[in-house]
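#dry-run=false #mode=assembly
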Amino acid sequence: MGAHSDTAVQTADRHVALDDHALDQLFRTARTYNVFRDEAISDETIHKLYDLLKWGPTAFNAQPARYVFVRSPEAKGKLGPTLSSGNRDKTLAAPLTVIVAVDTHFHEHLPSQFPSYDARPLFESTPALIEPTIQRNGSLQGAYLILAARALGLDAGPMSGFNADLVNQAFFADGRWKANFLINLGYGTNEKRGRLPGKRHISERPLPAEQRRELGHWEMDTVIGSASNDCILTLVERLTG
Ligand SMILES: Cc1cc2nc3c(=O)[nH]c(=O)nc-3n(C[C@H](O)[C@H](O)[C@H](O)COP(=O)(O)O)c2cc1C
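#status=ok
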């Protein structure tokens, strides 16, 4: 990989640990996001993202991952039918979705990527090495992308719930690249976190609860502060409360 050109790194005896704020943002308080603010991700941000993630190590510096940044309504339209039902709406609403794919002929680039010696013949003579190499290193590169996104203040929502054959047909018709997994990116919001899947409307509550005829029907409500994630929960028993 690239030489350390940063003077601070060259002159220091050792690297220093990142501060707590950085560690929180990258790991400890970072979460998987399903909902994002309605804020576009610029080309400049995409380039910054790639310029960070590309430094992550891979075997032979092979870098087999390839990234398709799906942002336009047309591209999202192609992706939509490939998604599992649970992933569809949130992915179509996300500002950006990355298809993390692999180049099944990555070894053609080894002479320039790994100048130490020519590793290309190794993969040409033993094709069985290709699959585990792209699987292992391509997945690592997807993880580097998630951490690079977090380092840039973005939030990520990785997904394997999609039909890879359909993605390959729609985006990689020549068969050389293969989809590994997807990552939604944007500025995450907690707006919809905690919503109950499949919850029913209050108008459907049973008559005894509606008419306060028996004990044991509780009303629950939440009040969430506008400037924090703190929450007050109220519980009232309908007959006695
Ligand atoms: C490779 C991968 C595939 C995932 N696939 C899905 C998915 O298809 N749908 C989904 O809603 N979440 C998916 N997730 C999100 C995980 O459920 C989530 O990262 C995990 O529960 C940890 O949550 P946290 O990051 O908020 O702690 C996936 C995560 C990874 C890393």
